[in-house]
Amino acid sequence: MSKNRNSGFHPTHEGSVFKEIVKPLEKEIVISKEVNSAFIGTSLEKYLHDREIEEVVITGLTTPHCISTTTRMSGNLGFNTYLIEDATAAFGINYKGTYIDAQTIHNISLATLHNEFAIVLTTKELLERL
Question: Does the predicted model carry a pTM greater than 0.70?
Answer without folding.
Answer: yes
